[in-house]
Structure formats: C-alpha cells, structure tokens
Design a protein that fits this description.
Shape of chain B: globular
Structural class of chain A: alpha+beta
Shape of chain A: globular
Helix content of chain B: 25-40%
Oligomer: heterodimer
Strand content of chain A: 15-25%
Structural class of chain B: alpha/beta
Radius of gyration of chain B: 20 Å
Number of helices of chain A: 20
Number of helices of chain B: 13
Number of strands of chain B: 11
Radius of gyration of chain A: 23 Å
Strand order of the largest sheet of chain B: 1-3-2-4-5
Number of strands of chain A: 18
Strand content of chain B: 5-15%
Distance between the termini of chain A: 37 Å
Distance between the termini of chain B: 60 Å
Largest sheet of chain B: 5 strands, parallel
Chain lengths: ~550, ~350
C-alpha cells in the first residue's frame, strides 16, 4: 500500500525535500536495532520498512505532518533516539517522524529546578549543561545517549539514580503534545499560561492518561517538548575525564563514595535494600556489574579497565586466582552504591550509616573493587551512564527477561527462579556460558525507595542463528514461568516474539488486572479516533467483555 | 540482496571502520562504485595524483629549496609532500616551510620531486583495493632504492596510509608526521621559537592523524570461541581504539610558541568531530562535507579562540571552504605555519 505520491508531496512541502525520504537504504536504517534478530527469525535483523521518513524541525512542522497524515489517511510514528523496537513503524503505511532536528535544551530554570527539552536532546548533553549549575537529571537506564523526553512520556524509565532522583514518570512536569489529529495539547501548568513547573496543574493533568501503564509508546501522537524535574548535583561543574577509551575514569570528589557491597545471602541482600531505603542514603544505587554473568563478570570488568587488554584477554583474567576469589565474593549478593554528601559532614554520616547497615546484615565493602582505578571508573560510569550496552560486547546479542518492579523480597525470590532457568538453558550450548546470574537493576525503581527492579540478561551470538534461537527459547520459557506464576506483564523477553493481534489480545486478557488494558483502549479511542497514530506497540484490550 | 552480518561484538575495538572499508571494496568489486569518484581514480592512475594536475608539475613546490633528490641519491628521511600540498597554491607553503625546518635542523632529508606518487589513501578509501596496492608498491620500491630509513609527511592522509596500510604490503620504514618530528626538534633545541605570537587558537585533530593514526601491528592468529559463544582471537588481536594516535606533539608545539594560547574544543582527540573532507566524502558529497566542516567551525568559535589550527591540508582546505561559504572570518592555520611565524 505505502504512501501515495500526493501524501509524499504534501509532507515534502512541510519539511522540505532534504528532510523527507523514501529511499530503501534510508528506510532500512529505521527498521533495524539491536535485538531485532530475535523477532525477524533470520539474521538480517530488519523489520518492515516505514513508508517514508520525515524530519520536522519544530512543533509547527510536527503538527502540519500530523494533519497531512489525517488528510491522506496514513499513519505516523515518532522516532527519537530509537532504543528498541518500540521506535519502529509497523509497516509501509506508516510515516516515521524522526525527531532528530528537535534536539534543543530550551530552558534551564535553576531556581525552580526544571529543564525544558525537545525530543532529541539526549541525557548526556542535558546533564553536562545542568552540572555547570549544580543540578542533575534522572537518567533512564538505557543511558546517556537516550532521550529523557521519550522515557518520561513514552516508556518506563527507571535507572541507577532513581532512588534519589525518581523514575521518568515521576520527574515529568508539563508537556507539549501534538495529538494524533494535529491539535496541540499542553498539559499541566503550561495549559494555563503558568509555565512548565507543574505536571498536575493548574491545567489539565493528563500525565497518567497519556503515560498509561508503560508510557505512550509513540502511539498517541508526538510529544514535542516537556519539562523535567531536576535534582541537586553536589559535584564539580565539569567532570574531568581521564584514561584511555573505553576505561575512562574521573577523579572522585571528597564528598562522594562509591562501593561494591557484598552479602552472604539473598535475605541479607534484600534487607540491605530495605535498610538503605529507610536510612535515606544513596545517590545512585544499582545492581550493575553482575549483568555480564556471575562467572565471567568480574574477569570482564578487570579486563575492561586495563587499557592494554581486550576481550581476547578475557580467559587470561578468568584464570587468575585473585579473579576467582573476587568472582566468589561478588557472586549473587552484590550491588553498587554511590553516596553523595550535599552538605559538609553528610558524606561521613552516609558512610557511617552504610557501615552500620553492613554490620547488621553481615555485609562488607568489596576491597578489590575500591582500588583507585576501579573506583574512579565506577564513579564516572554511574554518574554519566555512558556504557549501558556492554552486554552486547560479549557476543553481539543480549535480551532482558524476568523484569518486574516489586519489593526486594519478591525480586530476589523471582531472581532465583531466573538464575536456575538461565543455567539450564546455558547448559544446552546455544548461549554464552556466563553463569546463571546476570541479574541487573536499580535498587529503587521509584524515588525514595520501596520498589526495586531486576532484569535477567541472556547473552547470545547475534550472527549465529542457532544462538539466536537459543535466546528465543529462553525468553519463551521465561514467559511460561511468568504465566504459570500468574505474574503480570513485565519485560519477559517480549522483544523476542512476533505475535498476531489476536495473540496479543489473548495475552492481555489473561494477564492480572486486564482492566488497565481496556482503559488504554478507551484512551486510544478518545485521543486518536481516526486511528492515525501507529498503535502496534500500545497494549490495549478492545473487547470490554474481557476486562474482568 | 545479500546481507552482510558484520559481527563486531567480539572485536571490542570499537572500530567498525575497517569492516566498512571491506564493504566498500566489495561494492566496487561487484560493480557499484560511486560515479563521483571516477575522476579521482583516473587522475591517480594517469598522473599519479588525486588533484587532476599534470604529473610533471608535482615537484614544483620545492623549486628554490636546496634539498636532495632521492631519485638520484640516498638519504635517511624522505619528505613526502602528498598530492594536496604538492599542487595546492596556498597550502604549498606548509610543505616548503616544513621541509626547510627539517633541512635547517640538520636532518638528512630529501624528496622524490616529480617522481613522488600519490600515497593511495584516497583510492583505498573509495574502495579500490588492487589499485591501492599497485600505487603503494611503487612508493615502497622507490624508498627501498633510495635506502630511506624514515618517511616524514605533513599530510595526515599520507601518514595514515604509510603508518597503517603500507606495512601490510611489506613496507619497512619508520613513518612520522612532520609535527612529531618538529616537536622532537623543538624539545632538542634544534628549532628555537622565539617570536611572540599573541593569538588564541584551538586545535582540530585530523582523523587520519588521530583516530586512524595508530601504528599497524601485524597479527597472525586464529579465531576461537570461549564460554560457549564469545569469539576471541589467539594470540590477542592488536587493539585499535583511536586513543593512541598522534595527539600530543601538535599540542606541545602550540604550547611551545611564545604568547600563543591553546584552548581546547569539547570534542577532541579520539572524540574529535570529523571535518568532512576525507574518505571520498568531499568528492562525492561536497555539500555534506561543507556542512560537517561548518559544525566544527561553530565548535571552534564557541571556544572564543581567534583561529583554528590543524595538521592536515585536507582538513584545512575543507574548513577554509566552510569559512568562505559561511561568510565567516575565522582564520585557519597549519601548525607548521605558526612555527614559521614563531621563528
């Protein structure tokens, strides 16, 4: 079907000929992303091409594009930093709206602590500007090169800093929204001419409505601007970056500490989370370094920070007795924490509070992870989040599964099931044998603590069909486990399955609390009555009979 | 359509550029070269230079310089000017200045004059593997006949070709960029910078001197899998990460110039923004090359520096083109030009 010539011309008149394309080679770059080979059943990794791509440069152009799509009965899908398959258009009847020209930081209000950004302003760049003013922003786990606007409006959005700075939906203030019919809707205080400072009002508070369960997903129009709440940054205006790529380091200021903490049981591990929540300490807290696997992770990190070594040297590190010792020390019950003192004396207080928690739970600070180079590497890593894709380095492919947001007690219980299942699948030979525990996630999935998240990574060779299939098999079994335990839809490796619409509907109807998916269907009918916003990734249940 | 799966997951070197290079060779071999590149290819084949100029004028830039002719004598250093500096009116000065600096410092240096051939770097970049090999072998043989020990060049593209590509074809000479040599001569006291240059400058790292300027390390090993599916190499493959290119010598030179202030841009060294001139881009997509250079000029301007300095004539030409097309007043210098002013 595709985009008609008339429709193409109409779009071209809006954005200019240099900002629109239907060239196949260009379209291909809008339907390929890491992990896509799990969906495409071959090694090409390409999904369906969009009908065209347009690059608008302003809200007015986005609005004009949306209206043109309505007139010509074609769909559209916004695309900012394009982290996962969620960013893709569903096919050639869809125009992909690439927002890369809208990359500005529009306003930093340091006094009221918010920043106003466009869709393609990436977290790393925003953070660099904020730090000059003693401020910081929540950076979603996908890392510094992703769009905070996209995370706040359109996806989930916790990260290592969520304990202190909140989750993406929590930091979202007012927003500017080009709706599927082309109307511009301003939410919160923006709608009443009160500026960007408040997501709730005075003005229509629609954050809950458009965010729904897991964000708008690019299926309810285009968010062209938003304001994000900021947090304090008690560090230097600019972090000095030293060392050799990729193991950059940054000298840690005196009012910061970074540790890897280790415990001797899952119970102690979970209790550490609770006690840290209650103590109200911690700036960045994440189970991060375990993501590469309990067996090879420590060897990898030690190799990674050696400027003369590469993955080719992994076995050499793995065989070292001191690495074996470290591996055992870190196995299962370890995570990382960055403490930051906002005022003189606070860092000492936080460190003492942490020591008391460790003493109560039989935990300790891992000495081998506190040597200067590792400490400075970890400090930069967690503050800047530059390298969140390291899982891909092992063999090219990785997928998350078993991801849920819930209490630490439940997280560790479910995590152990995830570990056993991965071990079983690794023994079959198709996957990277990194050890069953590749669990990673933020200590708190929400500001202030209370809910954590943990995700199990499977690593596979993306250029090897057999290995790709082994990853798909693991994810399929992860989903079976979730259904058997009657756990709601988390990230159970959903990015590895091509489902028909009917299959999706059946899954949603069978999930606990299907009412929320019916509610999303109602929202979709309300804001997109003409069905112009591509809805492939929007979970909605359209049969009211199934809502119970 | 045939798909390539370029699996760089195990490479770890964060360096897909050479994979892309192989892809270009394959496209050309399969009959899909870019038409815009044909002029350059024909010029190199016919006249030994990528500038579409007569071969016999190549050595004219050195007229008046009392320097060895290495087609007739032998010498320790061969000064390879490169196509751009051999024929480019303005930038020719850089070659002449640099050579005079080396001669005055007492180095045993000569040139090939009109017999100097294109390094082949551009031909390599646009996908012509066998043509590049033929070009390279000619130079390697000429150096061998002249019993040259070291090649010194003021052109970063030539530097990359000699440093990284020629060793694979049997070249056995040391390769230095002129900034490395001049830096060393300054530190030895053989070049004295005494004149005050009251200028604030920012330095642009050429891709072919920086990221691509790491030396070739021969490797002969095997691929194997560990931990089930992780592909590694035995012995370990050399690590090309862009961090070990030539970054400090030009900076040290600038810092040694009295009165000169060096202000760094945000994106420098291995993170430097490309100027857009190389890789066949300027020839095939001149507007895009200008846009790219324009971005770099903006970045330079943001430092507040009065001038932008580099160590590659291709960078300097493209940046100057962007200055002109943008109606700007930014000065663009080569490091060597500032050295001359400071003597």
């Amino acid at each position: 079907m595709g985009i008609s010539k008339d429709a193409y011309r109409a779009l071209e008149e809006i954005v200019g000929p240099e900002n629109i394309s239907q060239e196949p080679v260009i379209m291909d770059s809008y339907c390929w992303v890491w992990e896509n080979e799990l969906l495409t059943h071959d090694l090409s990794g390409f999904s369906a091409r969009p009908g065209a791509v347009v690059l608008p440069g302003s809200t007015e152009e986005v609005q004009a594009v949306a209206r043109a799509c309505n007139r010509h009965h074609i769909k559209f899908k916004p695309f900012s930093t394009g982290w996962v398959t969620l960013a893709f258009a569903s096919g050639e009847e869809v125009v992909s709206i690439d927002l890369r020209r809208m990359d500005r930081i529009l306003e930093i209000d340091a006094k009221n602590m918010f920043v106003v950004v466009e869709p393609y302003a990436i977290a790393g760049q925003i953070q660099a500007e904020l730090m000059k003013l003693g401020l910081n922003l929540h950076m979603e786990g996908a890392g510094a090169n992703c769009s905070p606007l996209a995370s706040a409006t359109s996806l989930t959005g916790s990260g290592p800093d969520s304990l202190f700075m909140g989750r993406s939906n929590e930091v979202l203030l007012a927003a500017e929204w080009v709706m599927p019919d082309g109307e511009i809707f301003r939410t919160g205080s923006l709608a009443s001419g009160s500026g960007w400072f408040c997501g709730e009002g005075p003005g229509p508070s629609l954050r809950g409505l458009f965010r729904g369960k897991t964000g708008a997903g690019g299926c309810l129009g285009v968010f062209t601007k938003c304001a994000l709440k900021l947090s304090p940054w008690p560090g230097p205006a600019e972090l000095s970056v030293e060392g050799t790529i990729p193991a950059y380091t940054s000298p840690m200021p005196n009012n910061f500490k970074v540790y890897t903490l280790a415990f001797s049981s899952w119970e102690a591990y979970a209790n550490a989370y609770y006690k840290i929540y209650d103590a109200e300490i911690g700036y960045i807290c994440h189970r991060q370094f375990s993501m590469l696997g309990e067996d090879i992770g420590p060897a990898f990190w030690k190799m990674y920070i050696d400027p003369k070594k590469t993955l080719d040297d992994l076995e050499e590190f793995y065989d070292k007795p001191e690495i074996n010792k470290l591996t055992d020390e870190l196995r299962h019950f370890s995570f990382q924490i960055v403490l930051a003192g906002m005022v003189p004396g606070e860092i000492e207080y936080q460190d003492k509070a942490l020591d008391r928690i460790l003493s109560e739970l039989g935990g300790h600070k891992v000495k081998d992870m506190s040597e200067k180079q590792m400490e400075e590497f970890a400090f930069l890593y967690f503050v800047k989040l530059p390298s969140k894709h390291l899982n891909n380095v092992l063999a090219g492919g990785r997928q998350g599964a078993f991801a849920q947001r819930w209490s630490p007690d439940l997280a560790v219980e479910y995590g152990q099931i995830a570990v056993e299942l991965l071990k079983e699948h690794q023994s079959k030979g198709g996957l990277v044998k990194s050890g069953g525990d590749s669990l990673m996630g933020p200590m708190s999935d929400t500001g202030g603590g209370g809910v954590c998240a943990m995700e199990q990574f499977v690593h596979y060779a993306r250029a090897d069909l057999e290995s790709v299939q082994a990853a798909r098999d693991f994810c399929a079994d992860a989903r079976k486990v979730a259904r058997k335990l009657e756990i709601g839809r988390g990230n159970e490796g959903d990015g590895s399955e091509n489902l028909t619409r009917e299959q999706v509907q059946a899954r949603l109807a069978a999930a606990p609390q299907p009412q929320k998916f019916y509610r999303q269907w109602q929202i979709k009918q309300l804001v997109d009555p003409n069905g112009v916003a591509d809805s492939k990734e929007y979970p909605m249940l359209n049969n009211p009979q199934d809502k119970m | 359509m045939e798909f390539f799966v370029i699996d760089t997951g195990a490479a770890f070197c964060i360096f897909p550029a050479f994979n892309l290079g192989e892809w270009r060779f394959r496209l050309v071999e399969d009959g899909h070269p870019l038409p815009q590149h044909q002029r350059v290819l024909e010029s190199v084949k016919k006249n030994g230079n990528s500038m579409m100029k007569p071969r016999n004028e190549r050595g004219d830039w050195a007229n008046g310089l009392n320097v060895k002719d290495l087609t007739k004598e032998s010498g320790q250093f061969v000064f390879h000017a490169g196509c751009n500096l051999s024929y480019s009116g303005v930038a020719t000065n850089t070659a002449a200045i640099a050579l005079k600096l080396l001669v005055d410092a007492g180095l045993d240096v000569g040139i090939m004059g009109a017999s100097e051939s294109c390094c082949g770097s551009r031909i390599y970049d646009i996908g012509y593997r066998s043509e590049f090999t033929n070009i390279a072998k000619r130079s390697i043989e000429a150096w061998s006949r002249a019993r040259v020990n070291t090649v010194v060049t003021p052109c970063s593209h030539c530097y990359f070709a000699f440093k990284r590509l020629y060793p694979k074809l049997g070249a056995n000479v040391k390769v230095v960029h002129v900034v490395e040599l001049v830096d060393s001569l300054i530190k030895q006291g053989k070049i004295k910078l005494t004149k005050n240059i009251p200028l604030s400058v920012t330095y642009h790292d050429p891709c072919h001197l920086g990221r691509l300027g790491e030396p070739y390390v021969p490797w002969n090993g095997v691929e194997k899998k560990i931990f089930g599916r992780i592909k590694v190499h035995e012995p370990p493959k050399p690590r090309y990460i862009g961090a070990n290119g030539v970054y400090e010598p030009p900076r040290d030179i600038l810092k040694a110039i009295p009165g000169l202030k060096l202000i760094e841009m945000e994106r420098v060294k291995e993170s430097a923004w490309c100027c857009g001139a190389g890789g066949g881009v300027k020839e095939a997509y001149p507007d895009f090359a200008l846009w790219t250079a324009g971005k770099r000029l903006e970045e330079a301007k943001d430092t507040g520096a009065g001038a932008l300095v580099s160590a590659c004539p291709w960078c300097e030409d493209n940046l100057l083109d962007a200055v002109k097309s943008g109606g700007q007043k930014t000065k663009v210098y080569d490091v060597i030009e500032l050295v001359r002013q400071a003597i």
